[in-house]
Each structure stands twice: as C-alpha cells, then as structure tokens.
Amino acid sequence: MGFAEAVKTCLSKYVTFSGRAPRSEFWWFVLFAYGLGIVFSIVDLSLFGETTTIATDGTASVSSETDFAPFTSIFGLAVVLPYISVSVRRLHDTDRSGWWYWLGLIPLIGVIVLIVWFATKGTAGPNRFGEDPLNTA
Question: What is the pLDDT of residues 50-71, one digit of tens each?
Fold first, then answer.
C-alpha cells in the first residue's frame, strides 16, 4: 500500500475500529500525521509567534514561541480519531485486542511495547478480526 492510498484509507475509515490494517497503512498514516503536524506548527509559529532578539555584550539571542496554534490544533483534532482507529486495526492485524492501545498510558514502557507491536508482521491469513488485508486487496 502506497502513501496516498494509506492516507485515503485511514481517512475514509475515520472511526472504523473493526478489521485489520497492514503495517504499510499504519506507518504511512503516522508519517502523514506527524509530517503535516510539523508543517502546521511551523505555519502557526511564523504567523502567530513572537520573535525576540536580545543583544547583550555583543552576542545576540533569538527565540520564537507561540501559545496560539490554531492550525496545529484543528489538524490534531481532525486526525486523532483516524489515528486511534488505525492503531486499533493494526493491533487487530497482530491478533491482539484493540484494548491493548491503553498500554500506551504506561510511561515509556507502554509506548515502546506498542511501537514494537505496530512494527511486527501481522498474522498470515485470517484471524479472529477478519481476513488478511494483504491478501484481500
């Protein structure tokens, strides 16, 4: 599955928590979400950020910051449900319940375990969550 197809699939299955998602679908959507999030952060910073230049003893310090990030916030709200749903479907592909997603609430260890599971090859053939997404496409 390519980048455009993965993003289209994830956005069309906005809140579909049933079924399975192959690794490519999950990781391409993660790249899309984080990449566009960074772009929107830069746009918010350039439009609404404050730039301060402080010169002391011939040295200059420049800092930029903003507490107002409307584009990043709206994008984050728009992709949070598709991100959770593709994560649950990815867990289903590894024959794990979607409830394992709550493991991410355990600091550091939970996130590491989830990343390993998300990177693990899915179950070959059908499992209790449906047909193999790589063989049905």
Answer: 655 555 665 656 565 667 788 9
